[in-house]
Amino acid sequence: MVNPEKIWSSPNLPTLPAAAVKLLDLSKDPDSGINDVIDVIKTDPAITAKILKSTNSAYFGFAAEITSIERAVPLLGKTVVNSLALSFSLSDSTMSGGPLADHYRDYWIQSVTNAATAELFGELTDGAPEPADCFLAALLADLGRLALLKAAPTETAAAAAAAAERQIDLHIAENEIIGVNHVEVGQRLMESWGLPEPVIAAGRTQHDAAEILAAIPEGEARGLAVAVAAASACGDYFCADNKGQALARLKGITAQFYKFDSDRLEAFLAGAKVKIDAVGDLFSVNTDSIGEASDLMVAASEHLAKLALAQQLEASEAVARSQVLEQKAQSLEAEKLQLEQRAMRDTLTGLSNRAAFGDAIDRSIGQAAREATTTGLIFSDIDKFKNLNDTYGHQFGDEVLRRVAQVFERNVRQADMVARYGGEEFVVVAHQPTVKGIEKVAERLRAAVEAEVILHEGERVPVTVSLGSAIAVPARDPAGLAERLVAEADEAMYEAKHAGRNQCRSRNLIDEVQSEMLGRAISRRFSRWLVRREVLDIPTAQKALGEMDTSKAKIGGLAIRRGWLDAAGLDAILTDQTKSNERFCEIAIRLGLLDRERCAELLAVQAENPQSYAVALVTFGILERDRADALLKEYLAEGPAIAADVPLTVA
User: Fold this and answer.
1) CA-to-CA distance for 3 and 179, rounded, in angstroms?
2) Residue range 232-241: average pLDDT?
């Protein structure tokens, strides 16, 4: 890498003779005339002689010999004269011998190629920009290459060799080896020379593809940028080793901006070779090293084919690498899941462990707090487990733990969660239970363990459990409720033990108002109505509940849609909630905005939307659609307050 300051401060950077500088200044002055240009040129005899020689060359093709600069300038025009003057100045800068002579020659041949083809592209644009402007902008586009050769010759030669060996764009190799490329250096140099902004901008975009050039606003500036970019691609095509990329870029630009097809592009390139040779003669540059158009097309096509094959191989390798990485990622994810499951599983019983129980009870409390419903916990302990271990051995004790775990898993609801709390203690997190429901689950577990046949050496050994349950409706901020549920259920379980073991005891942490409201809300649910009508049994009703849409409407929104609350009343309740830990309905009742009956109906619809439940019954084939429709209408007819917000059909 080269320190950029070494380049910018190099005394070897190309400079312009005074006459060329003055000509540039005149080109910016709209009031300058032909005589002003003549006067400046005559101050530099060398440039004067070269312009006269060019005027009489076959390139311009004037019939009579031009013997004075006063006649040459009007015939050529100011733009052409300025281009020639700058071109001859650059030509002089490339006349270098020594080990870098070939690099200077290659730079100048490619610059001449750029200029010649840019002029041809300029002739296709109806004079906007002028061909002479295209010629000059393209000639100067690679000015940075000359600057780098003079300021950092060793590194520049290495970049050129790398580009040739790898058949890549030169500016890419320059970035890798020098740390800066010829486009950037050329931009800075052209700015210091005071060249016109469109010329500088065209040099900046010389390596861009068609889709990027298309983003330039339409006008003369874009026309110049497109001509220079196309010419730069021609320069690489004729002179560089990255012929395949150059041809692909050239096809894209000429197809979009000049409407070339493949045949027209091939014809253009054949004609361009004639133009390049003519411009080479104009500047005394031998262009014999540029091959014939047909040979170049073959070489470029072969290079494109190699590139396509390399890209295909690279894509295949990338896919293979991606598949390997994906397999590794999946394997790691599977291992991670296994580790997580092991970390949350009791190795002896296969149940969730105490850590998993902690997460589950927190989730259950959080959901119940959001939905203003219940959460519950059953705590159990195997009776006289130490005696079992001491009498029959620890292996038998382990078998008892496994069998009790299996009994628990078979006898809880699908939504409930069983965990080994520690030792011979097991817990069940009950999902939204009722007071009677959680007591029934505890009793079912007790009876199932008592009935389980567990043998030791062919003899049945009686095994029983004592259970305690606790149920609560979490406050809006349920902090500490998990610990309280565990403590209450544990105390209830010890009550059962003290009462003789193999029994159940329960604790109800729901206050009287909450209990009454929940009871009313539950009794008003469509599922309960169907069970009371003996349309469904409890297991079937619960199955449909597990499959229905569980999205919950807000109580306040339900009340407003029914006309039971207005905006002021809702605002009063919400304001009060910011100061208390009470629930919406508790505050509404306290403020006299809703009564318990209406709160119960709101809670019933929030917990179980009748139409969603009817849809679930039809979707899972529990009821025919017509039957579900009829039952839904009958249910709603018995509760007109609910009917205001619920469609009358399942559809």
Assistant:
1) 8
2) 89
